[in-house]
Amino acid sequence: MTRRRLLALALLALAGLAPPGARSLRAQGRAGVELALPSAVALTTDGPLVRCVNVVSDAAMRDLLRNGFPARLHFRVELWSAGGWFNDLERSTEWDMIVRYDPLDRTYRVARIVGEQVTPLGQYSQFADVETAVERPFRAPITAKRGQRSYYNVVLDVETLSLTELDEVERWLRGELKPAVRGQRNPVRPVTRGARTLFLRLIGGERRHYELRSSTFRG
Questions:
Q1: Model-level pTM?
Q2: Which of 71, 74, 174, 175 has the CB geometry, 3.0–4.6 Å to 118, for a possible disulfide?
């Protein structure tokens, strides 16, 4: 049997491991990130509302999740000043969301990490509930300066984590923050990383990038 045939059979076997509710599809729109500015009187006291749309809803991402590959959604919101010859980056804020399927109890778990705080967002048996939790708007902890012309730029990177990172993901979902979250994880061997990348690309995954800029406003 050829290597290609073996790979095709393996992928078909993995596709048959879908948990209950995993194929509950809603109307599919364009995947991306959305940003809503606060009211004019709250521009200097409240940050923008940020949410993602349909980034975990497509078949490829759902297949990766249900076959044991956790998803990490990394958000970055930047505040830029506008005017003059160049725009300047004033400050930025970042946070993560983690989504993982547990085959033992057939549920999905979702958590948000902001700075040193991990907030579990729930445990769900239906994928539609996962989508709702992931897409719930979050107010970014960043505000504009009074009297300054500014705009926000939001970046979202959706990454499929490797199986070797499951222990770290479990700690996040339990609300524990370890040094590995701050970039001090052990490096993955190049061969392992290369095999993982090839496999994920074959089934349509690994990393997706979304970006959106707000309109210019005065704080």
A1: 0.71
A2: 175
